């Protein structure tokens, strides 16, 4: 039987497909981690604008503790930025060491430094809305209902791109993925087809990351090889299946930024728009989680062959519950005090997860799917 695992540089992986059948011995060997005390894991990083600083805090806690080896990272929007910054920081240091444990230790510290450099740069922007200061947000919100970014931002100014290219050497990252750096999978939505596409390996560029974070009411669609892309959150926020197909471990830690549940019915315009935003950017993730849960139940009932199907273990840091009080509109706020506040809350959440659930890795799911 032919392998169900896509080729590493497959041109397109449709966002609505949720494949789980794999033949890991032939295509993706089972991962062993750094040593018996440092098992492998994959990360799934949700997008959410400046709320990605919360994810920075979680990643900082993981890298400081050094007890997990990150094999793969799937990220969308801000999650994609965190993914490439962390992977590059890890890889550039790990590549200088021949001893695997020393490489891991150096990589973790370098990843923390790269993430700090990136988010401190974000903190100097004040706003993520194409140069619009936070004081002008109300006017911008009103204008965006009637004018497109092709009118309000004709030069397609996006300071995040300059910052990203300053922090990440994409040519190095393309080469080192799966070697000294974690494999990275970035999702963007193809405007023409409406499907999510995965950018990894040689396709992982600054354009791909900016496409993954391209909100259509703020920025022009990003063109990549005659195709145009919008934010990956519409089709996979983040996508889980690349981590199932193209890594050799069975553990995924999801860092979620959008709350799933809402205790009250939204009543004013801002609350309604915030809730619509949360539902929209959680929809694809919930679909994949339901599919994974279905496969797990079939495996538990003995109706599927465990030699052909991965039994995935899901873990969860729920940033949505922590960030709900800020509201979706604050995702465009990126002044240094706010970014640092989100980082600290993420750091605490990451430390709590390590204390309470680190022992679940390789053993059981700490998150019901």
UniProtKB/TrEMBL annotation:
Official protein name in the record: Patatin-like phospholipase family protein
Keyword terms, alphabetized: Hydrolase, Lipid degradation, Lipid metabolism
SUPFAM superfamilies in UniProt: FabD/lysophospholipase-like
Sequence motif DGA/G, location on chain: 231-233
Ranges spanned by the short sequence motif GXSXG, renumbered to the chain: 75-79
Residues passing through the membrane, by range: none
Superkingdom classification of source: Bacteria
GO MF term list: hydrolase activity
Record region (Disordered): 1-38
A GO biological-process term: lipid catabolic process
Intervals of motif GXGXXG: 47-52
Keyword Nucleotidyltransferase applies: no
Location of the PNPLA domain: 43-244
Organism: Comamonas piscis
InterPro entries to which the protein is assigned, alphabetical: Acyl_Trfase/lysoPLipase, NTE, PNPLA_dom
Annotated Pfam families: Patatin
Active site per the UniProt annotation: 77 (nucleophile), 231 (proton acceptor)
């Amino acid at each position: 039987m032919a392998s169900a695992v896509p080729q590493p540089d497959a041109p397109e992986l449709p966002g609505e497909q949720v494949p789980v059948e794999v033949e890991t011995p032939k295509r993706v060997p089972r991962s062993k981690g750094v040593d018996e005390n440092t098992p492998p894991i994959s990360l799934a990083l949700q997008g959410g604008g400046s709320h990605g600083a919360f994810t920075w805090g979680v990643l900082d806690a993981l890298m400081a503790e050094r007890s997990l080896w990150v094999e793969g990272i799937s990220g969308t929007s801000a999650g994609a930025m965190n993914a490439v910054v962390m992977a590059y920081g890890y890889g550039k240091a790990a590549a200088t060491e021949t001893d695997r444990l020393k490489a891991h230790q150096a990589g973790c510290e370098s990843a923390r430094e790269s993430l700090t450099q990136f988010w401190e740069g974000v903190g100097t922007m004040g706003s993520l809305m194409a140069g619009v200061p936070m004081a002008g947000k109300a006017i911008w919100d009103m204008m965006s209902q009637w004018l497109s970014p092709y009118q309000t931002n004709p030069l397609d100014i996006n300071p995040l791109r300059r910052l990203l290219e300053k922090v990440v050497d994409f040519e190095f990252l393309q080469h080192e993925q799966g070697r000294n750096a974690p494999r990275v999978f970035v999702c963007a939505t193809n405007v023409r087809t409406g499907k999510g596409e995965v950018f990894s390996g040689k396709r992982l560029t600054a354009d791909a990351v900016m496409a993954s974070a391209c909100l259509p009411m703020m920025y022009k669609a990003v063109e990549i090889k005659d195709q145009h892309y919008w934010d990956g959150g519409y089709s996979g926020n983040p996508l889980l299946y690349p981590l199932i197909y193209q890594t050799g471990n069975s553990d995924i830690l999801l860092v979620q930024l959008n709350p799933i549940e809402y205790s009250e019915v939204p009543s004013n315009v801002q609350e309604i728009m915030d809730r619509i935003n949360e539902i929209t950017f959680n929809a694809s993730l919930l679909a994949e989680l339901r599919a994974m849960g279905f496969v797990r139940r079939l495996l538990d009932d003995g109706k599927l062959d465990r030699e052909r199907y991965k039994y995935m273990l899901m873990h969860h840091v729920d940033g949505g519950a922590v960030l709900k009080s800020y509201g979706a509109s604050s995702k465009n706020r990126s002044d240094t005090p706010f970014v640092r506040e989100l980082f600290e809350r993420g750091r605490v959440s990451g430390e709590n997860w390590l204390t309470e659930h680190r022992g679940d890795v390789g053993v059981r799911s700490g998150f019901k799917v």
